[in-house]
Design goal:
about 375 residues; alpha/beta; Aspartate Aminotransferase, domain 1; Aspartate Aminotransferase, domain 2; 2 domains; seven-stranded mixed β-sheet; 13 helices; binds pyridoxal-5'-phosphate; transferase; aminotransferase; Aminotransferase; PyrdxlP-dep_Trfase; pyridoxal phosphate
Length: about 375
């Protein structure tokens, strides 16, 4: 067995999800799957693709019309990649794995935020990278001084960025983006920017991928799992300059050949016809997010108002328990499941992740349970 694989843990989000199944009557706010159906035009396009026997391998990079449509879609956000610079993947997960496998030599230093989506650290560990965590500001935004400090220590090869963030919902501000661009300009670092949630944002959108100056140092990762609520259909993409693409696509080819053909046709139709559905979904998430924030505020739980994605990451420090202990007790005694912050790295200690991909009714019940549980701890009256 590969020793590095043996030492990597199964994702804490999944581990907790399994625990929930064993508690009867528990409400779960653990999973990052929007509770919307796949938009109807996408479903129809996939059915049509099956009926027309579009079930062969596609080119490794994916069908040309989809890559072209992604290129047009990204231009609306001032991100410029032409269709040859885009590769369709089996979900954002494959994109991340391909990119990191193609880049990392054992011992290479990579900067990874903490807390963050657990795959970054696990994949990098499997590949033998030297992982250096960087912490964030108190509101989970990018702490540029901290990053500069880490970069100054030398030999950093890669920087992973994740905005909007899972688990915190933080996004990048204009100033932070600009400072970051300066830092990358001055240093020989490749940036991997995971923007899986860029369609679900409640403020202005900024990305390092918008810079022409550092274009050759940026690899942009995104996908359709969240935007089109199609997590099980496994489709995503990454974009980068042609030289990098020449290398990355080799790994993609030997890993999967291509993304599922039928789903590629579905995603194409989605970009053409379903962006209105996406806007409605985003608006619904914003209403829910505000509801969750109000409920947490009324319980005097410290929480940062997230600016994107569909997660809230409140502090549970005042309950004097580890995140794991708090979440296990909340599940067993309060019949409510949230993910312990430590599932997202060491800096997640003292927090829990609430996903609000659930109906208003379910959220209302869930917050009643949280409130009742907290009352039993004797902190809330
Ligand atoms: N990146 C982030 C930040 C995520 O939260 C996720 C999934 O939750 C992914 C990537 C992986 O996306 P996919 O389901 O398309 O593989």
């Amino acid at each position: 067995m590969n020793k590095r694989v043996e030492s990597v843990q199964i994702s804490g989000i999944r581990r907790f999800y399994e625990k929930v199944q064993q508690v009867e009557g528990a409400i779960s706010l653990t999973i990052g799957q929007p509770d919307f159906n796949v938009p109807i035009d996408i479903k129809r396009a996939m059915i049509k693709a099956i009926e027309e026997n579009k079930t062969d391998y596609t080119s490794n990079a994916g069908i040309e019309p989809l890559r072209e449509e992604i290129s047009n879609y990204l231009k609306e956000f001032n991100i410029n990649y032409d269709k040859e610079e885009i590769c369709i993947t089996v979900g954002g997960s494959e994109g991340l794995y391909i990119i990191l496998s193609a880049l990392i030599n054992a011992g290479d230093k990579i900067l990874i935020p903490s807390p963050a989506y657990p795959a970054y650290e696990s994949i990098s560990s499997i590949l033998g990278a030297d992982i250096i965590n960087y912490s964030l500001n108190d509101d989970f935004t990018l702490n540029i001084e901290e990053l500069k400090e880490k970069v100054k220590q030398g030999d950093i090869k890669y920087l992973l960025l994740s905005f909007p963030s899972n688990p915190t919902g933080a996004i990048l501000s204009k100033n932070q983006r600009d400072d970051l661009i300066e830092l990358i300009k001055e240093n020989d670092i490749i940036v991997i920017t995971d923007e899986m949630y860029s369609a679900i944002i409640f403020d202005e959108y900024y990305s390092v991928a918008q810079s022409t100056d550092i274009r050759d140092k940026v690899i942009y990762v995104s996908g359709f799992s969240k935007i089109f609520s199609m997590t099980g259909l496994r489709i995503g993409y990454f974009a980068c300059n042609k030289d990098l693409m020449k290398q990355l696509i080799k790994v993609h080819q030997y890993a999967v050949s291509c993304a599922p053909s039928i789903v590629q046709w579905g995603a194409l139709e989605g970009l053409k016809k379903s962006l209105g559905d996406v806007k409605k979904m985003r608006d619904t998430f914003e209403v829910r997010k505000n509801y969750c924030i109000n409920r947490l505020n009324s319980m005097s739980i410290d929480v940062i108002d997230p600016k994107g994605a569909f997660y809230i990451f409140p502090s549970i420090k005042k309950f004097n328990m580890s995140s794991e202990e708090f979440c296990i007790r909340l599940l067993k005694e309060g019949k409510l499941a949230c993910v312990p912050g430590t599932a997202f790295g060491k800096k997640g200690e003292g927090y829990m992740r609430i996903s609000y991909c659930y109906s208003e009714e379910m959220l209302s019940q869930a917050f009643d349970r949280l409130e009742n549980f907290i009352k039993t701890l004797g902190i809330l009256k």
